Structure of DNA-binding helix-turn-helix protein:
Amino acid sequence: MKNNLDNFEKHLESKIDSSKSVSKKRKNEILTLLKDASVPFREGEFWKKFGYEAGPGNNMRTYREMAGWSQTELGQKLGGIARSHISAYESGKRSIGKDLAKKLAKLFKTSVEMFL
């Protein structure tokens, strides 16, 4: 698996270099994201740099807003959770449990780790 990822990374890097339209900074960002994809979320560069902002409640809010849903709508999609509870999860006043994290991950098609 690692060898395939290394080969893909080299291939992608050569494509970026040949395009000449991607800045060096953007190239490094792309390659960092690619490397992050090969390790658990909390071991990647993104987490090391922005982990303090990437708490479960903030992730919940971000995904909800990206979906264009209100707190009430998200609560309904999760089986009738009150808006006040959604607000408490998002603000970090209430912890997101494993069962809710699984529902959120399924709903937003992402990793459970995002909400734990």
Q: What stands out?
A: The chain has a mean pLDDT of 80.
